[in-house]
Design brief:
alpha+beta; Ubiquitin-like (UB roll); Rossmann fold; 3 domains; 6-stranded mixed β-sheet; 25 strands; 25% helix; 20% strand
Length: 563
């Protein structure tokens, strides 16, 4: 392969690659503002300029490229034998000049800026800045603007990299943002009568290298250096977008996209970005209950598990079947242990998948692109993260049962409940909004009902035993997205007080049934290995699952304090 030397390091490159792309791949620090892999190249910020040399075709000696002028590394294609210096005196002088220019009208309000701690302007000012300003005139103070339902624009902090403008034109296709004014009055703005409210709008906050575009939801909420970052997967749609959950002291503050070129590229939808709010809802269930003389009363977990197990056993003893409805919002690990628990109590238990919400049709961005395009971002119409994974697991468990692989849909489960064959049912929810239909509620009449859910609802009040469960942010597991890709995720925050992961509840039911061969505590990785060893059809849960490529901080359950 052809080679290029950047700051003394020899790097291989592919034909057509830009110098900056090769430097980024090789983790060579080159300052950059306007460049982004997912956007067009404009070379407007000029901070990435470098000295470039090329071997003379005749003598073989190095000679200045293009007459010795500084070249934008974000726009200059690599050539074999090229030598690049971004740390030469000439390049460094340019970096200092660019930083001085960018800070001329900047308010220097880092102490109150949400971007402080993760700001390129702040970082590069320290790394490449002059340390003092020669500007003596009055600074131009551009206004702060409310540009959309979720975004503020602090124009006085903007460095005019135009990443946000290019995103709305090239990715979302909505084109709300533009550049207005000229000279030192140039600024980003929305077109008159428009608002920045497309379904990908939040990505402009991630794209902004400074504190100009800000998330209203995160504004003044937390200092970024206090946040912990946990890799996760979109738990609200079938897209399987890779995300990072930013949290502190058990509370989520924001979602950010993780780059994955085979799934979500560099982006996430606002639906995913802001969809975590129900995790901290005041409607979260916070303790198990059981019916006593027709009234729900609080119960300790051991008592609630015992009541649920005994009630289901009584149904089987009476000659009727039980069923378990596994929500497509749950992980493959949850589905596995819930299916095993139901089959342990009733070998002829019906296995069913909960309702799979859909909204419209799949969308592809940029508009007009095809789903298989290299830079296409696909938003699934299916608003459940793991319908395919749940069907995969339940289907494999059913093959070894009397049902020979049959897994009922939500509608088929309702029909079976109405037939009278089923006398007891385990129902799981975990949807971010109300989901139980009137048809389901009517079909549950006269049945022993065990509900595992996160939010208060009519279904929760109908339950004979109610067991509060955990959201995907509070547990580890695996989702299978619409492409059939299995992706693992980790728990970001502790489980809500009084709740348990569905897989843990299933293990508790199994142990209440006398199954001492199952683990006492749920572990996602161990579950995948157990499933693959017990059911050969589930071996992909070990062989094909993709785990996070970034390290996960594991906090000890107990802190040691010196007195």
């Amino acid at each position: 392969m052809p080679k290029i030397t950047i700051n003394g390091r020899v790097c291989e490159f592919k034909p057509g690659q830009l110098i900056l792309q090769v430097a980024n791949e090789a983790t060579i620090d080159v300052p950059q503002y306007c460049y982004h892999d997912g956007l067009s190249v404009v070379a407007s910020c000029r901070i990435c300029l470098a000295e470039v040399w090329m071997p003379d075709p005749k003598s073989g000696k190095l000679a200045p490229y293009m007459g010795g002028k500084l070249m934008p590394t974000c726009q200059t294609a690599c050539m074999d034998g090229m030598v690049v210096y971004t740390d030469s005196p000439k390049a460094v002088a340019n970096q200092k000049a660019v930083m001085e220019y960018l800070l001329i009208n900047h308010p220097l309000d880092c102490p109150v800026c949400d971007q402080a701690g993760e700001c390129y302007l702040q970082d590069y000012s320290y790394e490449y800045g002059r340390g003092q300003s020669r500007f003596e005139e009055t600074k131009v103070k551009n206004p702060k603007k409310d540009v959309g339902p979720n975004i503020y624009l602090y124009s006085d902090r903007c460095i005019m990299c135009t990443r946000c403008v290019r995103f709305t034109r090239e990715v979302s296709g909505s084109g709300e943002l533009c550049v207005s004014g000229r000279g030192n009055r140039e600024e980003i703005d929305v077109f008159p009568g428009l608002a920045l409210d497309n379904e990908l709008a939040g990505n402009v906050v991630d794209l902004c290298p400074v504190g100009a575009l800000l998330d209203k939801d995160f504004l003044f909420a937390q200092r970024v250096w206090f946040l912990k970052e946990t890799p996760s997967i979109d738990g609200l749609t079938a897209s399987g977008d890779n995300i990072s959950i930013h949290h502190n002291d058990g509370k989520i503050y924001r979602f950010k996209p993780r780059t994955n070129m085979s799934v979500n590229k560099w982006w996430i939808t606002d639906e995913v970005r802001f969809g975590w709010r129900f995790v901290h809802s005041d409607q979260r269930l916070s303790g198990p209950t059981r019916k006593q003389f027709g009234t729900a009363v609080l119960a300790e977990w051991p008592r609630a598990i015992s009541e649920a197990h005994n009630g289901l056993r009584h149904v089987v003893a009476s000659g009727k079947r039980i069923a378990v409805m596994v929500s497509p919002m749950l992980s493959c690990e949850d589905a596995y242990w819930l299916g095993r628990a139901a089959q342990a109590i009733d070998p002829k238990a019906f296995l069913a998948v909960g309702p799979v919400p859909t909204q419209g049709a799949d969308k592809v961005f940029p508009p007009g692109a095809k789903a298989d395009d290299a830079k296409a971002f696909v938003v699934s119409a299916e608003k459940a993260p793991n319908a395919r994974g749940v069907r995969r697991v339940l289907g494999a468990l059913s093959k070894a049962s009397a049902h020979n692989g049959y897994v009922a849909s939500f509608e088929q489960l309702i029909a079976q409940l109405r037939s009278g064959e089923i006398g007891g049912v385990i129902i799981t929810g975990n949807y971010p909004t109300a989901w139980a239909t009137r048809e389901l509620m009517d079909a549950l009449a006269g049945k022993f009902v065990v509900v595992l859910d996160t939010l208060t609802s009519e279904l929760a009040t109908r339950a004979d035993v109610l067991l509060p469960s955990a959201t995907w942010c509070e547990k580890a597991g695996t989702f299978e997205n619409w492409r059939g890709m299995l992706q693992a995720f980790e728990a970001a925050i502790p489980v809500h007080e009084g709740a348990r992961p569905e897989a843990q509840i299933a293990l508790d039911l199994l142990r209440a049934d006398g199954r001492g061969d199952v683990p006492a505590l749920f572990n996602a990785a161990d579950t995948r290995r157990h499933a693959a060893a017990s059911v050969p059809e589930l071996s992909p849960l070990v062989s094909d699952v993709r785990t996070p490529s970034v390290s996960v901080e594991q906090n000890a359950d107990m802190e040691v304090v010196e007195l």
